[in-house]
Amino acid sequence: MVEKQQLAALISELSDLSLITDPGRLERFSRDFAWFSPILTEQLADKRADLVVRPNDETEIKRVIAACHRHRVPLTLRGSGTGNYGQCTPLEGGVVMDMSALNQVRWIEGGVARVQAGTRLVNIDKEARPKGWEMRLLPSTYRLATAGGFYCGGFGGVGSITYGSIGDPGNVLGVRALSLEAEPRELELRGREALDLYHAYGVNGIITEIEFALAPAYDWQEALLTFPDFMEAVRFCQTLGRASGVIKKLLTVLADPLPQMCGLEEQVPAGRTAVLCIVAKPSFDATRELCEQYGGAIALTQEHADVYGTAHSLIEHAWNHTTLHIFKRDKGITYLQSGFRPWENVEKVEQMYRHFGDEVMMHLEFLRADGALTCSGLQVVRYTDEQRLNAIIQFHRDHGVHIANPHVYTLEEGGKLEVDPRQLAMKRRLDPAGLLNPGKMRSWEEEAVA
């Protein structure tokens, strides 16, 4: 933990920057949406920054970096705090550096956007559209989420049905990063090297700029569909997802009673499953015909352009926003993050659905993984205790369903359940003193002990 004299020296050195020392604001800047998990809520309750710094440009960032290195004070990065795993919670105190003032779109050219790390995703999208482009991928938190936060802590979202995850090759072309050293080095990392900083929670390098590959902008149609049978809704999504001629942006399944729990009760009668979809307008007729073939009906249609960036878009009930809306009404729930293998996703979804019933309610997001259509689950769980939650997780794993556990805060346990040697090597390269949020990367701590 940070000693008083260390903190005093740091504050004195950075006194002309925007600093926050008020205890209430320190608490707020040390939190993200980890409260989705009752386990993380308890584990992270006493973790708080000693100081928040809000740099205005890269020169000020370098000053913060150099000072933290000189005084051996931990440094944790923060965007808008829309992550779910305590990414911006400093496990050993120290400085939280809020990157949100670095919010400029540097340029948009030829289907590529170069932006600063604190740029809100919705603003990138809005600047790209007049040029005929749009973001390939957006989380449901796109109105607040920043480019750096999405890359370092996100996975997919709206657009994943076509473009997969943010970490798939070709979606992010490069990053500009700084090392945490006495004299911070500037690195331009392209292609595969840039991916070594992807989904690393900001613990192995300080990203200041990102280059996103964009997608052609379409006129989109939003549609809310309802089905009397959950598995027919799943099969409809599987068929629509595989339809190469249908241009898609979102394909979400909410099993009964989730539509009524998340604010869609006026459009979706009790007992019916909801499918949220966004397709290009020329693809809507084919979507409607497939819906009817699987016994579905259209409950709502709306122009995506009319509701984009507002609470009326169906995006507000997809991805992690589903859980958010339900949690506002029912504090007795939590969630899982699961991955179904493409060659058996429909069968495994049905197996889990039949086995758990109303205890683990099915929320599915259809997407592409390594080019193949599949779905990920953001299942809503009626929470009883940690032991039962772990048993639910283990049952999924025992039956071939991957769980990226959202109830742990270390990098490895929450993701692939294994050490990524390239991410570890990047931390050695850009954070040799191990000052970027110590405790977050288990493999680094184990290597230090060894």
TrEMBL record:
Pfam families: FAD_binding_4. GO terms for molecular function: D-lactate dehydrogenase (cytochrome) activity; D-lactate dehydrogenase (NAD+) activity; FAD binding. Residues 45-217 form the FAD-binding PCMH-type domain. InterPro entries: FAD-bd_PCMH, FAD-bd_PCMH-like_sf, FAD-bd_PCMH_sub2, FAD-linked_Oxase-like_C, Oxid_FAD_bind_N. GO terms for biological process: lactate catabolic process. The keyword Flavoprotein applies. Gene3D superfamilies: 3.30.465.10. It comes from the Bacteria. PROSITE patterns: FAD_PCMH. Keywords: FAD, Flavoprotein. PANTHER family: D-2-HYDROXYGLUTARATE DEHYDROGENASE (PTHR11748:SF119), D-LACTATE DEHYDROGENASE (PTHR11748). This is FAD-linked oxidase. It comes from Alkalilimnicola ehrlichii. The lineage of its organism: Bacteria, Pseudomonadati, Pseudomonadota, Gammaproteobacteria, Chromatiales.
